[in-house]
Amino acid sequence: MSKLITVFGATGNQGGSVIRTILADSDLSKEFHIRGVTRDVNKGSSKALTAQGVEVVQGDMSSSEDMKRVVQGSHTVFLVTNFWEHQSAEPEIVQGKTVADACKTEGVKHLIFSSLIDVTKESNGRLIHVTHFDGKAEVERYIRQTGLPASFVMPGIFTTELFNLIHKQGDGSCILATPTTTQSPAPFIDIVADMGNFVRAALLNKPKSGANTIYASSDYYKWDDIPSHFEAATGKKLIVVTVSGEVFKSFLHGLSPEMGEEVYENLMLLEDPGYYAGADLTASLDLLSEKPVGLTEFFTLNKDKW
Fold first, then answer.
1. Are 133 and 118 a contacting pair, CB within 8 Å?
2. What pLDDT, on the 0 to 100 scale, is given for residue 209?
3. What is the pLDDT of residue 55?
4. Which of 111, 216, 230, 234 has its C-alpha lying 20 to 30 A from 95's C-alpha?
């Protein structure tokens, strides 16, 4: 009899990638039956999952009773929380802890959480506004305290953020402005294509007890390295420039000052202490059965954007 895996954010980037990966894997699709959690079971993307054999359920992540119902019978749970829905860490932390408590109560054997580092701690209090990292780090600490066997999969910078960072100029060339030095290493992931691949690695390398961490990025890329990937894929010139923090934040149209500071400090994290606080990616990449999408491939697939 197949085991049940419950996947939160089933119609989103991360949960959707996890579901597609399991369905496409001949072994995992036999090993696991999938329950997908979404906010609206009636939307088209939810119905498309149902048509593929996924059990789609609705649940309020802030409700203990709802979450116990949602994870009941699950061997494994993939949990992703959404900071950007409220642009606040507090609801995200509450929801993450509520799901963790439900997993503990219902006897879940493996909790896989999409986590990030504690930037305030790792920067020694210098960068205190990267709350979409710190909130997830708080949930991770809580999960570790429950004693649940857990895997923490930490996605890098979404490659789609480059749509916002690289701008076409009047002469046809492109420019990327960063408040960091151009030597700062940035780990990137094609979240739609590859989050599922890293979660598959977590499924195949479940800790017998305690927890493990998987860094979900294709590689570290210095900003100075990006033009060669961009130009090879698009045939267009890309110039990388360093600008002041105030100039960079002035480019962030449509964001509140608080969110502008969040994005700015998120990039400054790359300089010191580093996106993953200096962690090496080799061991995580060695767990993959498929090579992740690199920047040249990403730019090739999306060259019409520029």
1. yes
2. 87
3. 99
4. 216
Looking at residue 220, its pLDDT comes to: 99
| Beta strand pairing call for 219-222 and 185-189 | antiparallel
pLDDT attached to residue 182: 97
Contact present, 95 and 61 (Cβ < 8 Å)? yes
Distance separating alpha carbons of residues 299 and 130, to the nearest angstrom: 27
Q: What's phi and psi for 232, nearest 5 deg?
A: -65, -35
Q: How far apart are CA 76 and CA 55, in angstroms?
A: 15
Tokens at 148, concatenated: 């649940």
Helix axes 89-105, 64-71, angle to 10 degrees: 50
Token output for 138: 């708080």
Q: What is the pLDDT of residue 163?
A: 97
Which residues in the chain show pLDDT less than 70? none
**What's the mean pLDDT when you consider all of the chain?**
98
CA 15 vs. chain centroid, Å, equals 10
